[in-house]
Write a structure and sequence with these properties.
heterodimer, A: 113 residues, mainly beta, seven-stranded mixed sheet, four-stranded antiparallel sheet, globular, B: 115 residues
């Protein structure tokens, strides 16, 4: 089925380790997003991209980097993981052709110990 | 500033009864409004949207939402709740102040439907 695929689904990191979360969409959507979801905090935008080769900061970008080398992929990197980055991460994509409604991935549950 | 508010953290309703999940918004210009649902351990799923036209919008799983411009509200409704409707519901509005690329999400309302 068409949609947004996130890998991995679960990960445990030690403080200071690095990792990359991968998001892939096969709907040819122009825009892609990374959110984190924490209890009582709702969804917070980390970074987003409005096209291949372009990225922008969201409301909580510190400690994260992103890249969008191909239109269908949006990578989220943690260079030096901290316990405060323990969260559930969601990727989403959207398109003006669909009036900007989002399609979300199933999430990555990350624990930093 | 553009914003969206969900005044209730939790809504409890008995199965078979009508349900309403409230949402109010503050935007400049014409709003693009959305509802999403999140089931346990899942990503958010699109339910419905209002862009223009009829104020009553019908969506997935029997849900509908009523756009009220004068009250700046976009409440989610369902005539008869099911236990399987228990989930976290998010109202959202397209943020046109930053080029329209982003969406602002409410804090979410947890719906409990009791059998």
């Amino acid at each position: 089925n068409a949609g947004v695929t996130q890998t991995p689904k679960f990960r445990v990191l030690k403080t200071g380790q690095s990792m990359t979360l991968l998001c892939a969409q096969d709907m040819n959507h122009e825009y892609m997003y990374w959110y984190r979801q924490d209890p009582g905090m709702g969804l917070r935008l980390i970074h987003y991209s409005v096209g291949e080769g372009t990225t922008a900061k969201g409301e909580v970008p510190d400690g994260y980097n992103v890249s969008r080398l191909k239109k269908q992929n949006f990578l989220l990197g943690l260079e030096s993981a901290a316990p405060s980055q323990t969260s559930v991460y969601f990727c989403a994509s959207s398109s003006p052709a669909l009036n900007y409604g989002y399609t979300f991935g199933s999430g990555t549950r990350l624990t930093v110990v | 500033a553009q914003s969206v508010a969900q005044p209730e953290d939790q809504v409890n309703v008995a199965e078979g009864n009508p349900l309403t999940v409230k949402c109010t918004y503050s935007v400049s210009g014409n709003p693009y409004l959305f509802w999403y649902v999140q089931y346990p351990n899942r990503g958010l799923q699109f339910l419905l949207k209002y862009i223009t036209g009829d104020n009553l919008v019908k969506g997935s799983y029997g849900f509908e939402a009523e756009f009220n411009k004068s009250q700046t509200s976009f409440h989610l409704k369902k005539p008869s709740a099911l236990v399987s409707d228990s989930a976290l519901y998010f109202c959202a509005v397209r943020d046109i102040t930053t080029g329209g690329f982003k969406t602002i999400f409410g804090a979410g309302t947890r719906l409990f439907v009791k059998a």
